[in-house]
Specification:
With 240 residues, the chain is an alpha/beta fold. The chain has one domain (2-232). Helices cover 51% and strands 15% of the residues. The chain contains 13 helices and eight strands. The strands form two sheets. The chain has a six-stranded parallel β-sheet, sandwiched between helices. Helix 2 packs across helix 3, helix 4 (66-74) packs parallel to helix 13 and helix 7 packs across helix 8 (163-175). It binds uridine-5'-diphosphate. Uridine-5'-diphosphate binds at residues 107-109, 135-136, 158-161, 163, 184-185, 187-188.
């Protein structure tokens, strides 16, 4: 059963369950969409009906970010676990390495996806990365063709939200893969261009704080988090 958090319905899954579900989706013809919304993305969906509809039709919607967990708790329908998109991606790769499933990396600045491919092959022996493409292209068609030609089963689409989900909705079928995962800035992390927060920050649910310390220009985006939680309080009071 899904849990509605301010208009986005989340799967109430742990990390392991999310990966199990993704592996099931890989057994069926696609295209399937796995989305990893954080509070910012939920807020964006609230203002963008096309995006909200794509998320409503997604096959797997996992709660990325402690803000979603807080909001669910405030709403009186707690989610069982925070499942950061990047942890989900890493765990999924751990399970598909050695199975022959083929991964394509799409997104980020030129060179980043290729570097991520090198690092991921080293981190997950037996992983097949069948192609990579940067996220700054003008036409969708040739990119979808490249993914199809590479025979990809899984595509990590890292163009930022909602661009990545809209790209998947429009091109997923043509590109021929079974599972598309929208993963924002994850390729920058896999490529070693952006550091993840130290484990202590992650454990405390303070990864956002570390990111803010590293990139203070994110303050404008993050200042919306209190508003997000206030909306949850409002919705609870109105009995939604
Ligand atoms: N990006 C891209 N094409 C675009 C816009 C953005 O490939 O047209 C990439 C950007 O280089 C970065 C990622 O998308 O790697 C977005 O990262 P961000 O952390 O903003 O994503 P979020 O998860 O917060 O949506």
């Amino acid at each position: 059963m899904r849990v509605d958090v301010l208009g986005v319905a989340f799967d109430n899954v742990t990390l392991d369950e999310a990966v199990d579900r993704a592996l099931e989706l890989l057994e069926e013809d696609g295209p399937h969409l796995a989305a990893t919304p954080n509070p910012e993305i939920v807020q964006r969906a609230g203002k963008d009906p096309e995006f909200a509809e794509i998320l409503a039709g997604a096959d797997l919607v996992i709660p990325d970010g402690v803000g979603v967990i807080y909001a669910a708790k405030i709403l009186g329908r707690p989610l069982r676990a925070r499942v950061p998109g990047i942890d989900f991606a890493a765990a999924l790769l751990g399970r598909v390495a050695g199975t022959g499933r083929r991964l394509f990396l799409l997104g980020a600045a030129p060179g980043v996806a290729e570097q991520a491919a090198v690092n991921l092959r080293a981190a997950y022996p037996g992983l097949v990365v069948c192609g990579a493409h940067d996220g700054y292209f003008k036409e969708d068609g040739p990119v979808a063709d490249a993914i199809r030609a590479a025979g990809a089963d899984i595509v990590f689409v890292c163009l930022g939200a909602p661009k990545q989900e809209k790209w998947i909705a429009a091109n997923g079928r043509a590109a021929g893969a079974r599972l598309y995962v929208g993963l924002g800035g994850s390729l920058d992390v896999f490529a070693g261009r952006v550091e993840r927060a130290p484990e202590q920050f992650q454990k405390l649910g303070l990864e956002w704080l570390y990111r803010l310390m590293k990139e203070p220009s994110r303050i404008g985006r993050m200042a919306r988090l209190p508003l997000f939680l206030t909306s949850a309080v409002g919705a609870r009071i109105r009995g939604k």
